[in-house]
Design brief:
Elements (H helix, E strand, L loop, with lengths): L2 H19 L8 H6 L6 H27 L5 H22 L8 H7 L2 H34 L3 H48 L4 H11 L14 H5 L4 H17 L2 H8 L4 H34 L12 H9 L4 H39 L6 H25 L6 H25 L5 H21 L7 H19 L7
Helix pairs in contact: 1-7, 1-14, 3-6, 3-7, 3-11, 3-12, 3-14, 3-16, 4-10, 4-12, 5-6, 6-7, 6-14, 6-15, 6-16, 7-12, 7-14, 7-15, 8-12, 10-16, 10-18, 13-14, 14-15, 16-17, 16-18, 17-18
């Protein structure tokens, strides 16, 4: 047991939990609890977007991609930028036309209450499954550090994050995100230099050995309409198009991200947060990929065997080879990425449950309750979702590579969500029933694609969106035209 490192990790866990819980006294309404009172500066929201977009999947999964491959994943990140242009142009103006708490209130305005429930329910399923994978990812790190079983590790991280999310709401989520983002980026930079220092020849050796192994390759511009073209996950075209569709869906239609955009003071500040977050995202993905290449050079020149699976390479190297204190700090940084993402998921799941399901039911039945009632319920539902994510985290232990598992599972449902938002924003004819048909067809189609084809996950959202838009519009030709504007 390395007690100094464990002490550093313990201080971090206690400190961040105390920091987040301090925001309880500012939570007086649903607007405070779910949107941070719409008083958060754009730069803090931008950092919070980065934290939510990153997660432990990035911290431990991205170095593994470069260790076993190259820097090709950056092609997907260029798609992230294209998506932000689309979101700021097409989605944000609609989100800031009213006092909205969730992305799915916009769907009710355009289509109706049934479609709102379908899209909100899809988000709940999507986020719960994807977050369960992320919860399992952090258990890998904790199990390495403490030598505990994965079940105990999952329980620990969920319980601590749940506490400050329960107390401080969205305000706690955003400001702990800011602290945690600086911690895990700083920890990654520190670990990079420590690993580099252990390689004879330093950076020049890394450039030579990694270059000879093809680790520095970023772009793959091959374009041929063949089976291989659609089975390569990281080509320029799959990255740009697939990354754009994936991020347009995640940042434009999923409550986890939209909730942050809605927390900004104005549409202009929301746009500034969105674009500034891409700059940080590009830097951090580059950093983690380069760390993976550096680790490849380290193991290529040593007698040690790299751990298996590849997701364990970065955290296990940190714990076994970095000096005392530094190892604890970097592991705490990885925990920071996990806790920030989990906190965001818990709050967004609770907000969708209350605002898109519970509150509308009471309003239609004429049993409207006080703001305090909804606020208390929001906290209870936050706990309930914590229990659900714990259970899914246990199941996720058998789903393979954590980064690609999380992205591919989410991509199955993203296409239908994005498709219905595009039908709502770009057409007038498509009504509620036709839209539901398109979304259902997209989900069934993507289950087939994932189960029975070898198409790369980077194409999933494009395919799912195309099915939803195509079937939805065709259905509208034989159904009554939409009456809503």
């Amino acid at each position: 047991m390395r007690y100094f490192d464990l002490g550093v990790i313990l201080v971090y866990l206690i400190g961040i939990t105390w920091f987040g819980a301090r925001f309880r006294h500012s939570q007086r309404s649903l607007k405070d609890y779910f949107l941070g009172g719409r008083s958060t500066p754009w730069w803090a929201i931008g950092f919070s977007i980065v934290s939510a977009e990153t997660s432990t999947l990035t911290v431990i999964g991205t170095p593994a991609l470069a260790f076993t491959g190259n820097l090709g994943f950056l092609q997907v990140v260029f798609g992230y930028l294209l998506a932000r242009i689309i979101i700021s142009t097409l989605f944000l103006p609609h989100y800031f036309r009213g006092e909205m708490y969730t992305a799915y209130e916009l769907i009710q305005v355009r289509f109706g209450p049934r479609m709102r429930k379908l899209t909100a329910g899809t988000f709940l399923i999507l986020r719960a499954i994807a977050e369960g994978v992320r919860v399992f990812a952090i258990s890998i790190v904790i199990a390495i550090v403490l030598g505990t079983g994965e079940v105990a590790s999952i329980l620990l991280i969920v319980a601590l994050t749940l506490f400050y999310t329960f107390e401080g709401g969205m305000t706690a989520v955003i400001w702990t995100d800011v602290v945690q983002m600086f911690l895990y980026i700083g920890g990654a930079i520190l670990s990079f230099f420590v690993i580099l220092n252990q390689i004879p020849g330093g950076w020049n050796e890394v450039l030579t050995v990694a270059g000879a192994a093809g680790k520095w390759q970023i772009f793959d511009f091959r374009f041929e309409l063949s089976r291989e073209f659609f089975t390569r996950s990281y080509s320029f075209w799959a990255g740009l198009i697939g990354g754009a569709f994936l991020t347009t869906a995640s940042h434009g239609t999923e409550q986890l991200m939209v909730q942050r955009l809605l927390a900004a003071k104005s549409q202009g500040e929301s746009r500034a947060a969105l674009f500034s977050s891409w700059v940080v995202i590009f830097f951090q993905f580059t950093l983690f990929l380069v760390i993976g290449a550096v680790l490849y050079v380290y193991y290529a020149g040593s007698q040690a065997q790299p751990p298996s699976p590849a997701d364990r390479i970065y955290p296990q190297f940190i714990w076994e080879h970095l000096p005392p204190g530094i190892a604890g700090l970097v592991i705490a940084a990885i925990l920071a990425a996990a806790m920030s993402n989990l906190a965001a998921a818990l709050n967004s799941l609770a907000s969708t449950t209350v605002m898109d399901f519970y509150k509308p039911i009471l309003q239609r039945s004429g049993r409207e309750r006080s703001e305090q009632h909804y606020l208390s319920l929001a906290r209870v539902i936050t706990i309930a979702w914590g229990v659900v994510l714990f259970g899914i985290g246990l199941l996720a232990r058998h789903w393979g590579s954590v980064l690609e598992a999380g992205l591919s599972i989410a991509s199955i449902l993203y296409g239908g969500l994005l498709g219905i938002f595009l039908l709502g924003l770009l057409t007038r004819r498509v009504g509620e029933t036709a839209g539901m048909a398109g979304m259902t067809a997209s989900f069934l189609g993507m289950l087939y694609v994932r189960q029975y084809t070898s198409i790369a996950w980077t194409w999933y959202v494009l395919i799912g969106t195309s099915i939803a838009v195509g079937i939805g519009y065709l259905a509208s030709l034989v159904l009554p035209a939409a009456r809503r504007d």
